[in-house]
Amino acid sequence: MKTRIKELRARYDLTQEDLAKKVGARRETIGFLEKGKYNPSLKLAYKVATALETTIDELFIFDETDLE
Length: 68
Prior knowledge:
By secondary structure, the protein is mostly helical. The chain has a single domain, classed as 434 Repressor (Amino-terminal Domain), CATH 1.10.260.40. It is 54% helix and 6% strand. The protein contains five helices and two strands, in the order E-H-H-H-H-H-E. It has helices at residues 5-11, 16-23, 27-34, 42-51, 56-59, and strands at 2-3, 60-61. 18% of the residues are buried.
């Protein structure tokens, strides 16, 4: 799964640590999300999208292989 987290974080001048604190997660979790190595819970996805003032659909990019 691809994400726009890093791009949107930069727009708001947030570090991974800043975003992690806003959503109640570890910095490492944000890093894994950005690299597509971690599928977040719906709750975490919502918190990240809200913190970055976007929607889950705009934040996470799915393709057919993600559903297998």
